[in-house]
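Example record used in the benchmark description.
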Amino acid sequence: MSEPGNATPAVREADTKTVRRAVSGAAMGNAIEWYDYGVYGYLATVIKQVFFPEASPAAGTILVFAGIAIPFILRPLGGIVLGPLGDRFGRRQVLALTILLMSGSTFCVGLIPSYTTIGIWAPILLLFFRLVQGFSTGGEYGGAATFIAEYAPDRKRGFWGSFLEFGTLGGTILGAVLATVVQLGFDEQTLQSWGWRIPFLVAGPLGLIGFWLRNKLEDTPCFQQAETEGKTTTSPFKEVLTNVWPQILQLIGFVVLLNVADYILLTYMPTYLTQVLGISDTESLLVLIGVMVVMMALIAPVGSLSDRVGRKPLLLAAAIGYLVLAVPAFLLMGMKAVFPVVVGLVIVGGLLLLMLGTIGSALPAMFPTRNRYGGFSIGYSTSTAAFGGTAPLIVSALIAGTGNDLIPAFYLMGAAVIAIVPILVMPETARVSLAHPTRIPGTDKFVPDRTPAMAGAAAADKGERAEH
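Model output (structure tokens):
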């Protein structure tokens, strides 16, 4: 805590217009990442025919989802390289690089000739560009979350942080819609020839828009103040390993559940509904898009709720909810009628919403400013690589091997068991300043410090409530 009479100056708050621009620029990168997953997931059948035409149906599906899982091998490397660079040289510069790499790799997938044209080089090039994306996304999410959290006012960090995942849902919906439009708008021959390329090529201009938005902004107020005070790190990777490893372990444990739920619902579910349950492509598309649109509408209110009641209660409710309700939700989907399928998806999506609306504010606040980008990126990318991107591949392989349609539910339950402990031990960071962390005496842990400005804000809130 700050000593009396020696208070640390509060970080200047950006005006609302600047915060909006910062949030838009940061969320755009996350939207592009998930736009790619949306396109890839909804075009899985076409991708299988274009790149793996000689594989059996089951093997082809596994190979397609390997195209999602294998690039995650490089995601931790991206976090290790790009995250600490963001602590050393600034958030904005690294984020400008990641959005170009992500959108460029997705764009290039749309340029790859088919297997029938260049043979084995087609899947090799597909893997190469997806590996580039895996590396770049290792530094994207942690940086985008840090960028928004450090620009947002502390008292509304939950509200503004929720828009990062608004980008996730928006990108997924856009990818799903465009993928479906080309599938419905072209005959099979045209689709396999060049129609499938259109959604991938759209990522190019989207990336340029995101780059322009990010390049117009200054770096975050937190980082600028740390630079002014000489408190940025010159050995970012070393400091991350020595100073914030407990928080990294906590983040890894929680993100297991977040990513398993994310990738099962947003990436694997189209295949699960159509190929496992036998629901028509049109019905599954409409239901999934409807659920995601509702989640988009509710995500900001969930973020605001976390500002009032805290992050931990919402995260804990999500973990317990998956432990108790995952099997009932997938049993409902297994009934294959529209209404129970919708109810099952609403349960899975609603529990995910509690996490998506909260993590953009909760997780960056676990780290001090000088190690925030690196610590967050390394922990998040490591957990995502191990448990998130692999989820569709593992689940589809287990269903093929066992014939049990409830495998996704069991996978969610296992992830929930892992996540409950780190949620319980992580600090509550609602209404706490990001700018002035301090070390807990006798430990290696850092916690954000309540600044005089925050204390005054809390007192003002209390006075306002008393008057009413």
